[in-house]
Amino acid sequence: MVIKVLAIGDLANNIAVLRKYVKKSEIFLVNFPWTGASTITDEKENVLFIDPNNVVEQLNKINELKDRFDVCLVMSPAGARLAYLADLNYIFYLVGNDIRTPPFIKNVKDPLASDAAIYNYNFLERKFYWNVYQNAKTCIASFQNQFNYLKQYRSDGRRLDKMAVDTTIFNKDVKPVYRKKTKFTFFSPQKVALQKGYNIIIESLSYCKSDFEIIQVEWFDKRNRKETEFANNVKKNKPHQIKFVPLMTTKEMASYYAFSDAVLASVGIGYPEAVDREAVFCNKPVVAFHDPNYAYLLNGKEKKSPFLPISKDPKELAKTIDLVVESEQFRKELLQKESEFIKTIGEPYQVGAEWDNLFEEFIRKYDSINRNTSKIKLRFRLSFFLIANKLYTKKLKKIFQ
């Protein structure tokens, strides 16, 4: 039997990639027209895009679809919100900000960025999102860092330290972009953001002694005033090593990985992100801060990350950058260690098999995707959300006619 999975709200193409590598499951994706890294740019077939601003229309569409599926997998608070309103049994896959800065915390701040609030939701909105997080039948977080956050809110949370890499796009045989190269070149596709440690990168460049260029994708965090000020300052006063290029598709990213001599990734997060995994599969060494306090549960064993530096000190980052630029032997040894680690984390068929097992376990426990809560309770739930979002009562009246 093929397990039919309804996925809602993909982030950073995680589900779009995963569905290529599951064997016992078939995933249909309902998504929002995100911007930036969460945009599905290369594979739009079998994806239903829905209006991000009309919750009632979203809900109607999910209600039309839901009975065709055995399992619901959600990403992002927006995806989980929709599954909650549709009264589904859902698996909530939590990555990054979704669990580090959950929307049910008052004036929540990103510990990796500024001390300014990310959300400013009212009490009713926070209560609603608390229910969304608590009503998930299963919550899964990736890596120790994110699992530690999840444990603060769910005692039954689960951890999965593997995330698939799309090897049809990211591999060592990718052809490089046609572009003139005059010196050692880093490719840096991650967002220019405080949460990515870009302020540390900027400072470190003043300590670097080697000669190199950084091709930086031009996109920025602007979640609050402080982040916007930082982004604008980088635009106006960028170090001479940085050359901006426009936002691009994942296939274009692969060609830039192939073109580069090495990749400069996040020095703020501390665990492997998509850039780390993709670059290594394209056979490029990566400079990225990985917290030495984190361990990774891989095939039943704990492993440590080989990525460097293991400190957020700008001078340590500068030393690592200079070593990568000046020593071919260092680059080769670093890449070999990174490859052994990342190919355990990101081998897509292994990741697909783990998710197949999770879906099988889920349908053994829950006979239906539907919870069959009373219609009165569901109307109250929707009303609660709409009122919390300060919609007019005449809209409510029209909905229930």
Task: Report on this structure.
- By secondary structure, the chain is of the alpha/beta class.
- It has two domains: 3-163 and 350-399, Rossmann fold; 184-346, Rossmann fold, CATH 3.40.50.2000.
- The protein has helices at residues 14-18, 55-65, 76-85, 97-100, 123-134, 143-151, 198-205, 225-236, 250-259, 274-281, 314-326, 328-346, 348-365, 375-388, 393-399; strands at 3-8, 25-31, 47-49, 71-75, 90-94, 138-141, 158-159, 184-188, 212-217, 242-245, 262-264, 286-287, 296-298, 301-303.
- Helix 3 crosses helix 5, helix 5 (123-134) packs across helix 14 and helix 7 crosses helix 11.
- The longest helix is centred in the C-terminal third of the chain and has 19 residues, at 328-346.
- The model is unreliable at 391-401 (pLDDT under 50).
Q: What is the gist of this entry?
A:
The chain is α/β, with parallel strands linked by helices.
Could you give the topology of this structure?
Elements: E1 3-8, H1 14-18, E2 25-31, E3 47-49, H2 55-65, E4 71-75, H3 76-85, E5 90-94, H4 97-100, H5 123-134, E6 138-141, H6 143-151, E7 158-159, E8 184-188, H7 198-205, E9 212-217, H8 225-236, E10 242-245, H9 250-259, E11 262-264, H10 274-281, E12 286-287, E13 296-298, E14 301-303, H11 314-326, H12 328-346, H13 348-365, H14 375-388, H15 393-399
